[in-house]
């Protein structure tokens, strides 16, 4: 996306007052603009298909379809739309379900005025956005998996792929990685696609989780 083009956002929440407040926060930023609203999950899916937003901000507890159900449907039918969950629930189960449904971030409504704008920007950069409690839950999940011996093969990837995986997980862009390794951004993208395919992962967040599990970066 061109830097001068604002991120186009779909906002879905069944409380009109919440939507109004969140919209004020987002529309106050020059790089963010709300282009559609929905008051339930089914309407969110319909609006996403109609408007093709860059980002969908979804509440979890909505009529007809929940935000998690809507996220799963959007991941399948509108893969170009990134997803951010905005919720009142500080709940590990919902957090993991949100990640599983395709969300790139999880923001609590209680701190939306502090975190939401940065969460939107991080999501559009292809980076995960997790509130502190979610990070703790993620680390506990890794530790549980390690104790249960559910590790992936240690040499599933080449040395160059491992280099790129580490840099991706540390938050570097394709251009920054290309500059560091003196290769083209297109080559970086090809290696990244190969990594996702080889490891059976779907996005940067899952690559980061894998990198932590195999010790390439610290949690």
UniProtKB/TrEMBL annotation:
The keyword Phosphoprotein applies. InterPro entries: CheY-like_superfamily, NreC/VraR/RcsB-like_REC, Sig_transdc_resp-reg_C-effctor, Sig_transdc_resp-reg_receiver, Tscrpt_reg_LuxR_C, WalR-like. The keyword Chloroplast does not apply. SUPFAM superfamilies: C-terminal effector domain of the bipartite response regulators, CheY-like. Residues 8-124 form the Response regulatory domain. The modification 4-aspartylphosphate is found at residue 59. Residues 150-215 form the HTH luxR-type domain. Gene3D superfamilies: 3.40.50.2300. One of its GO terms (biological process) is regulation of DNA-templated transcription. GO terms for molecular function: DNA binding. Pfam families: GerE, Response_reg. SMART domains: HTH_LUXR (SM00421), REC (SM00448). Keywords: DNA-binding, Phosphoprotein, Transcription, Transcription regulation. PANTHER family: TRANSCRIPTIONAL REGULATORY PROTEIN NARL-RELATED (PTHR43214:SF24), TWO-COMPONENT RESPONSE REGULATOR (PTHR43214). This is Two-component system response regulator. It comes from Streptomyces viridochromogenes (strain DSM 40736 / JCM 4977 / BCRC 1201 / Tue 494). The lineage of its organism: Bacteria, Bacillati, Actinomycetota, Actinomycetes, Kitasatosporales.
């Amino acid at each position: 996306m061109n830097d001068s083009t604002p991120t186009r956002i779909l906002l879905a929440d069944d409380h009109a007052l919440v939507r109004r407040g969140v919209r004020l926060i987002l529309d106050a930023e020059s790089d963010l603009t709300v282009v559609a609203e929905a008051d339930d999950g089914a309407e969110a899916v319909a609006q996403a298909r109609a408007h093709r937003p860059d980002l969908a901000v979804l509440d979890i507890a909505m009529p007809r379809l929940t935000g998690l159900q809507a996220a799963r449907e959007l991941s399948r039918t509108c893969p170009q739309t990134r997803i951010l969950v905005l919720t009142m629930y500080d709940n590990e189960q919902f957090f993991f379900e949100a990640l599983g449904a395709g969300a790139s971030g999880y923001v609590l409504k209680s701190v939306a005025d502090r975190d939401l704008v940065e969460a939107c920007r991080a999501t559009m950069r292809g980076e995960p956005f997790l509130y502190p409690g979610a990070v703790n839950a993620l680390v506990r999940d890794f530790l549980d998996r390690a104790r249960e011996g559910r590790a992936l093969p240690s040499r599933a990837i080449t040395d160059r792929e491992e280099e790129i995986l580490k840099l991706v997980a540390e938050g570097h862009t394709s251009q920054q990685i290309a500059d560091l390794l003196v290769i083209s951004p297109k080559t970086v993208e090809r290696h990244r696609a190969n990594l996702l395919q080889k490891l059976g992962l779907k996005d940067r967040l899952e690559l980061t989780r894998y990198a932590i599990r195999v010790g390439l970066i610290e949690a």
